[in-house]
C-alpha cells in the first residue's frame, strides 16, 4: 500500500487527482466512502476527475457511461472496465494499492 493523500484533502462529495509513479489516480469521497480509480475513461480517454459520483458509481463527463467504483465495471456498457484500486484508511491517511 502506498500513501495517496490525507483524508481531509478529499472532502465529502469531493474528488482529488494524485499522481503516483506517473499514474494518475482519482480519489473520490462518496458520502464518507473513499474510492480510487484511474483518471482515463476506458471508452475514449476523458478525464474521470470531471465525472459525477453518485451512490458508488462514477459517470464519465464526455458520454455519460457509468462505472461501478467498487470494481470498475461499466454498468451500462458491459466489457468496458475502469481500473480501480484497493483503498485502505490508516488513521487520517488514505492508502492505495496500485497493483490491484
Ligand atoms: S469517453 Fe468516457 S464514456 Fe466516452
TrEMBL record:
Top-rank lineage group of the source organism: Bacteria
User: What molecular function terms (GO) are annotated for this protein?
Assistant: 2 iron, 2 sulfur cluster binding; metal ion binding
Q: Does this UniProt record's set of keywords contain Protein transport?
A: no
Q: In what residue span(s) does the Rieske domain sit?
A: 2-96
Keyword Iron-sulfur belongs to the record: yes
UniProt keywords (A-Z) are: 2Fe-2S, Iron, Iron-sulfur, Metal-binding
Cite the SUPFAM superfamilies for this sequence. Answer: ISP domain (SSF50022)
The protein here is known as Rieske (2Fe-2S) protein
Name its species.
Oryzomonas rubra
Amino acid at each position: 500500500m502506498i500513501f495517496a493523500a490525507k483524508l481531509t484533502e478529499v472532502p465529502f462529495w469531493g474528488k482529488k487527482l494524485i499522481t503516483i509513479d506517473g499514474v494518475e489516480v482519482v480519489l473520490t469521497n462518496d458520502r464518507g466512502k473513499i474510492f480510487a480509480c484511474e483518471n482515463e475513461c476506458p471508452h475514449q480517454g476523458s478525464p474521470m476527475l470531471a465525472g459525477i459520483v453518485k451512490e458508488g458509481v462514477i459517470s464519465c463527463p464526455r458520454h455519460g457511461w457509468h462505472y461501478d467504483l467498487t470494481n470498475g465495471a461499466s454498468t451500462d456498457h458491459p466489457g468496458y472496465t475502469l481500473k480501480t484500486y484497493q483503498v485502505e484508511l490508516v488513521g487520517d491517511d488514505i492508502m492505495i494499492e496500485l497493483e490491484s
